[in-house]
């Protein structure tokens, strides 16, 4: 399960490990070879729900589930047959997707040097839900397909989107493609725009899915983002939450890279996977200021990593904990503050300073509400502590 506030909003980080995909020099991608390969797909169930096997030649190949059942498909879900049969029965599909109140607090327009981006139409307050929507394409990260269905010809993905409604396909195809001509355009669009999604609320090491969204996937990256991406399982929606006040006309940004990685690590990942060089305020600081920023983020990363171990407070001092909290503020990493506040709470509890422990727990609870809203999985864990924390 991909919880953890430091990495929320990270776009498809593990999709290719630490390396970008290598283009596979596959059979030339011609319209006739593509339709021939799409012909290899077969309908497993043609009515509600519609499930299609990606490749008739491979019984174990991935399957495409089109949702909602019985209507033009807004979304395709890609996974094993057993999994999509289960997913098809989720009660959530009988409910209409949540609708955001009108007018939306943002617009999508050209962002100089970045293609398009999302911009605030008015002051958006910290903790406000900016946008929520369901993905048009959701897939297990690891898919099973034949070797002749590859990144260069995009046959697999083209077959998957062929069952979508015209408007959903159009919305997907309108997204940015940062990959060059060595790759199929549908593969490029999906890879450029994937965000991580969860398909279960239970801990599950195989819960490793990606989703592509018509609007959320438009947001650009910043190493000090103004919004946090959160996937809420209950309505099956991706959500953007404002992590600080966003002034009218300011850009709404999320993070595609780990918030606590150094500038060099962030730049490498953004260039390898997303094909751009970040010129955000943090990345363009003078060299010495970048060093200080890297040192602060490194300390936050180290302390956050400790929070999951039994030696969490070994060698730790109150001064170091409070300093790290200051670093989180200085770097403007609001989403990272949750994990740090939780760490501070457990540190002070270990020191038998219960009053201070509870104080940090209250702060963490408030931050969770700001960056993930009422559906926050962390908030649910606080339920039993409400009498202490209220
Ligand atoms: Zn940057």
Automatic annotation (TrEMBL):
<dbReference type="InterPro" id="IPR046341">
    <property type="entry name" value="SET_dom_sf"/>
</dbReference>
<protein>
    <recommendedName>
        <fullName>SET domain-containing protein</fullName>
    </recommendedName>
</protein>
<feature type="domain" description="SET">
    <location>
        <begin position="101"/>
        <end position="257"/>
    </location>
</feature>
<feature type="compositionally biased region" description="Low complexity">
    <location>
        <begin position="26"/>
        <end position="35"/>
    </location>
</feature>
<feature type="region of interest" description="Disordered">
    <location>
        <begin position="1"/>
        <end position="35"/>
    </location>
</feature>
<dbReference type="InterPro" id="IPR053185">
    <property type="entry name" value="SET_domain_protein"/>
</dbReference>
<dbReference type="InterPro" id="IPR001214">
    <property type="entry name" value="SET_dom"/>
</dbReference>
<dbReference type="Pfam" id="PF00856">
    <property type="entry name" value="SET"/>
</dbReference>
